[in-house]
Amino acid sequence: MRWIKYLTNSSPEEVMSIAQEDQIFADILEAEKMFVRNREEMLKYEARERYEMDCASLKSDGIEEGKQIGREEGAKSKTIQVAKKNAKTRFR
Fold it and tell me: Which residues contact 29 (CB under 8 A, 6 or more apart)?
């Protein structure tokens, strides 16, 4: 439960309270503070996060595009099959 409260940053007071009760959380909070103070590292982190979100978005878009192409090809194939079947029965 404390991990959820800590990670969702319910409030700064709660985070501090958790950090005071448990040395692991105190160490994590200190590491976070150092990380946020280092602007270059923070910018690298934010750029990486944007990159990961862009990749996920592109992948999702590609999957949807592939599904649409598959539906179109399937419909075309079905039309051809029906036409061939009709042609066979018509010319018997």
Answer: 15, 16, 19
In order along its 92 residues, the chain shows pLDDT tens digits of 778 877 787 688 888 888 899 999 899 888 888 877 888 888 888 899 999 999 999 898 888 899 999 999 999 999 888 888 888 777 66
Q: SS3 for 42?
A: helix
Rounded CA gap, 77 and 71, in Å?
10
Query: Which 8-state DSSP code applies to residue 45?
Result: H
Q: Name residues whose C-beta falls within 8 Å of residue 22's C-beta, 6 or more positions apart in sequence.
A: 2
CB 22 within 8 A of CB 16: no
